[in-house]
Design goal:
The protein has 303 residues and is mainly beta. 4% of the residues lie in helices and 49% in strands. 44% of the residues are buried. It binds manganese (II) ion. Residues 62, 64, 69, 106, 254 line the site of manganese (II) ion (MN).
Length: 303
């Protein structure tokens, strides 16, 4: 691959995906152009959307292995249930971190007959040394916030603006929500060892004069020490970054692994009711794993 200019922001488009029941999200990671940003290997932007009665986010019990799910709630309320017996409502300004490790199952459903949903859901690939850990779930009701020249900076992961997120991770990562309710401009200091990406969640902004709007991911290779962020009206962005993930990973359905055999085993275990315990407390139907028998994927280097 040609050496990448660290001064260039590379643009990739999010694609629409259906989470089930017609609930559409914009999937910014992975894409053909970009598999991951640090250990962040999946990024769904849900909403902002009004949902009619009986709709909204309704994802029945499904399993995960080899990753952490990281949910950042912006508007609306979603009820989480998992196979460890946790029942947790996540509200705006809160983070849910679920560590799948060797295996967990969960469900997610919008609360209320009708309402609004706006959230970012990310996955974090677990490094080999930690990917078989016991499953766990932690709810973070508050994250550190800094004022950054008219942007409200919420430090979701890692360290930024002199604040440190309490979220426990297994790789060096950063995640910051930047929200302005009017025209604003600020400089964000970056860790030069990290690659970074920005997703616009609402409004529009300029990143080093590069325009960004919802549906576009801007990516920069390691080597940057800062970025300039500007908006002319209310806007909200998600900044993520991390040291490039050193291990090739295999992602299929809800699993992050290293070999097709691991994926096939996890899919078979889920469909046969092994390994993953039931998810108590939800009325939603279990989501069966697709047929993994013909899987011939090779682990892909992070890029
Ligand atoms: Mn899930």
């Amino acid at each position: 691959m040609a050496a990448m200019d660290v001064n260039t922001w590379q643009r990739s488009a999010a694609r629409r995906a259906d989470l089930g029941g017609g609930f559409n999200i914009a999937r910014a990671l992975p894409s053909a152009a970009r598999r991951s940003v640090g250990a962040w290997c999946f990024l769904d932007h849900a909403g902002p959307a009004q949902f009619p009665p009986g709709a909204g986010m309704r994802v029945g019990p499904h399993p995960h292995i080899g990753l952490q799910t990281f949910t950042w709630m912006i508007e609306g309320e979603v009820l989480h249930h998992d196979s460890l017996g946790n029942r947790q409502v996540i509200r705006p300004g809160e983070v849910n971190l679920m560590t799948a490790g060797r295996g967990i199952a969960h469900s997610e459903e919008s609360l209320g007959e009708r309402g609004v949903v706006h959230a970012a859901q990310l996955w974090i690939a677990l490094p080999d040394a930690h990917r078989q850990v016991e499953p766990a779930f932690v709810h973070h009701p508050s994250l550190p916030v800094a004022d950054a020249d008219g942007f409200r900076a919420t430090v979701l992961a890692g360290h930024a603006f002199g604040r440190r997120s309490p979220v426990q991770l297994h790789s060096e990562l950063v995640g910051v929500d930047l929200a302005a309710e009017g025209a604003a401009g600020t400089r964000v200091e970056l860790d030069a060892r990290f690659e970074h990406a920005l997703l616009c969640l609402r409004g529009a902004a300029q990143v080093d004069h590069e325009p960004i709007e919802p549906g576009t991911l801007l990516y920069a290779a390691p080597g940057r020490t800062r970025l300039e962020l500007r908006c002319d009206a209310a806007a909200q962005l998600l900044l993520i970054g991390g040291t490039p993930f050193p291990e090739p990973i295999l992602m299929w359905w809800n699993f992050v692994a290293r070999t097709p055999q691991e994926i096939q085993r996890a899919a078979a275990d889920w469909n046969a009711g092994r390994r993953f315990a039931d998810v108590p407390g939800t009325q939603l139907a279990r989501v069966p794993a697709p047929d993994a028998s013909a899987l011939r994927l090779k682990p892909r280097a992070a890029r």
